[in-house]
Amino acid sequence: MPRPEYTRWSLVLGAARGDTDRRDTFARQYAPVIRSYFAARWRLPVDHDQVVDATQDVFVQCFKDEGALERVDPERAGGFRAYLYGVASNVSLMMERKHARQRKAERTESAVDLAAVERRQETLSQVFDKAWANMIAREARRRLAERATQSERDAERFRCLEMQYAQGLTPRVIAERIGMPVTDVYERLREARKSFRLALLEVLGDHNPDASTADLESTCRDLVGLL
After folding, report:
1. Is 209 in a helix, a strand, or coil?
2. pLDDT at position 101, please?
3. How far is the C-alpha of 139 from the C-alpha of 125, rounded, in Å?
4. Are 11 and 30 in contact (CB under 8 A)?
């Protein structure tokens, strides 16, 4: 399956130029993706100190003078996803080597041996891709939540969708909880899924403005397969 290749280049390039707001947005947007990668690589919880420190180091590498973001190329094969994956991989290798040197120098056995963890790069890449897909899906969900305030119908769609996917409720249970005929719930869910797909295409379009409609449709299918 082709991997998603998308990012909002205006955000990336703005962060590279030192724009404070864009750097803050960049960090909020990509931190969950990076944490998921390190947690999978080292088999640690996403809030473990080693994972948090490594994630912060990725941003240090990105934002420092002549850092990673200043070298990013929008024409790079694989898009920004592949570039950020490479930065995270390099940071992980640096931390593993540093950790190994410390263990050797101190001759101690720490609770976590980063370098000793067995891993497969293709599996780590899949973890990274899934986290990336979830990031795009969160943005699409946020847009649907905003639109849910615009009309009662939009609010009903969003509520039904959240109850089914976030809470795991069946249409019949949803109907009982909100006092709506189950046939109407099915209709709202069909509409909501269509709206969510359109929102995904919008987000993908923002992240890859030069992509054709066919490319966006293909990427959207791949993304849904990763969720």
Report:
1. coil
2. 78
3. 21
4. no
Same domain for 93 and 53: yes
Give the tokens for residue 73: 């190329």
Are 113 and 133 within one domain? Answer: no
The tally of domains found in the chain comes to 2
Number of H helices, E strands in the chain: 9, 0
Question: Is the domain of 180 the same as that of 207?
Answer: yes
Residue 11, number of CB atoms within 10 A of its CB: 20
Range of the domain at 63: 1-119
Model confidence pLDDT, tens digit, residues 86-133: 999 999 988 888 877 776 776 655 555 555 555 666 688 888 989 999
Phi, psi angles (nearest 5°) of residue 70? -70, -15
> What does the alpha-carbon distance between residue 151 and residue 148 come to, in Å, rounded to a whole number?
6
Q: Rounded to an integer, what is the distance from CA 116 to the centroid of its chain?
A: 27
Here the tokens at position 151 are 């009309």
Asked whether residue 2 falls in the same domain as residue 54, the answer is yes
- Whichever domain contains 6, its CATH number is 1.10.1740
**Please, which pLDDT band fits residue 215 given cuts at 50, 70 and 90?**
confident
Cα-based torsion angle of the residue sequence 172, 173, 176, 178 in order, rounded to the nearest 10 degrees: -110
> Shortest CA distance to 156 belongs to which of 197, 194, 201, 187?
187
Claim to verify: residue 135 and residue 115 sit in the same structural domain: no
Q: What letter represents residue 185's amino acid?
A: V
Furthest-apart CA atoms within the chain: distance in Å = 69
